[in-house]
């Protein structure tokens, strides 16, 4: 599974509508409205590298209201939550 983190600048007056439209794009797993230099962050998860272009360049960046995107492709995921689940033996404390 490939994961890309996409930072989106969008029309500020349309953030909720743009976020809702982005959640409908196949391959987008989550969309976050955030503070800071960007308006939205979308998590894209696909099986093949070629699918990233389909989702991000061909679909996500063309959603009406999206002004600019910047994409970061994840190499590895580190999560305390995932590690705890992986090593849990199911024994209650």
TrEMBL record:
Query: This protein is called what?
Result: Lrp/AsnC ligand binding domain-containing protein
Q: Which GO biological process annotations does it have?
A: response to amino acid
A GO term for molecular function: sequence-specific DNA binding
Q: Which PANTHER family match?
A: LEUCINE-RESPONSIVE REGULATORY PROTEIN, TRANSCRIPTIONAL REGULATOR AZLB
- Coiled-coil features, chain-numbered ranges: none
A Pfam family that the UniProt record links to this protein: AsnC_trans_reg
Give the signal peptide, or none. none
Organism for this UniProt entry: Pengzhenrongella sicca
- Describe the location of the Transcription regulator AsnC/Lrp ligand binding domain by residue ranges: 6-76
An example GO CC term for this entry is:
cytosol
């Amino acid at each position: 599974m490939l994961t890309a983190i996409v930072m989106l600048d969008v029309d500020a007056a349309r953030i909720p509508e743009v976020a809702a439209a982005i959640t409908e794009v196949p391959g987008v797993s989550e969309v976050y409205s955030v503070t800071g230099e960007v308006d939205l962050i979308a998590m894209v998860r696909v099986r093949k590298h070629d699918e990233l272009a389909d989702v991000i360049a061909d679909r996500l960046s063309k959603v009406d209201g999206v002004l600019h995107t910047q994409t970061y492709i994840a190499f590895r995921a580190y999560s305390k939550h995932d590690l705890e689940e992986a090593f849990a033996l199911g024994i209650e404390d």
